[in-house]
Amino acid sequence: MSERRSIIKRLLILATLLFGVRVEAQNPMSESQVKAMFVYNFLKFVEWPVDTSAGAKDPFVVLIIGEGATADATEHFLESKTIGERPLVVRRIRWDQSLAGVRAAFVVEPDVRRLHHILDAAAAAGVLTIGEGESFTTRGGVIALLVEDRKVRFDVDTAAAQSARVRVSSKLLALTRVVRSSTDRSQR
Questions:
Q1: pTM for the whole thing?
Q2: 73-110 residue pLDDT tens
Q3: Is the pLDDT of residue 60 over 70?
Q4: For residue 57, what pLDDT band results from cuts at 50, 70 and 90?
Q5: 3-class DSSP string for 57-99
Q6: What's the rounded Cα separation, in Å, for the pair 84 and 25?
Q7: What residues form DSSP beta bridges with 104?
Q8: Which secondary-structure segment (H or E) carries 128?
Q9: Domain ranges in the chain?
């Protein structure tokens, strides 16, 4: 019975990601809250390099880098969540702090120079990067959240994922608005 519930739950998540969540006045969830839900669900559909030093119940660390409504909503939404049996720990850091021991980072950094520093460090550390706006993936981020026709959608840069040594599930890639690779980038 538990396995059936798990399958149903995953199908609902995939349907939500596939059809997007409409952001409208009658929708009680704000755009920022919807994006926070997406961030959490992305974590469930990505595989990281095996960390032999991490135990099955060690914390799953997610960073939030930057400020804004979506950063705040994401921090709040992720509190007290788990990834499998691992408790999710959310930390806020500055753009120039270490990414050691981190699995994912939600990046809201408008300064392009700082963003490049963060994305380079994240790729070297095997960190999944999630951000906002179409330019996030063209600059080297793995997943970009966007609003299109008042629906939250997302782009995935498979080359950036490969560079960070993270594997995005084919189920998630099937739902993405656009899959980009480094050959698609006009400039970085």
A1: 0.81
A2: 999 999 989 998 899 999 999 999 999 989 999 999 88
A3: yes
A4: confident
A5: CCCEEEEEEECCHHHHHHHHHHCCCEECCEEEEEEEECCCCCC
A6: 34
A7: 62, 128
A8: strand 128-132
A9: 2-181
Residue in this structure with the two tokens 């550390």, named with its chain if needed: 125
Helix axes 31-44, 69-78, angle to 10 degrees: 50
CATH of domain 2-181: 3.40.50.2300
Go through the chain and tell me how many residues it has: 188
Beta-sheet strand order (sheet of 104-108) = 82-83, 86-93, 60-66, 104-108, 128-132, 143-148, 151-157, 178-180
Residues 6 or more apart whose CB falls under 8 angstroms from that of 95 comprise 65, 66, 109, 111, 114, 115, 117, 118
Helix (H, G, I), strand (E, B) or coil at 53: coil
Pair 107, 115: CB distance under 8 Å: yes
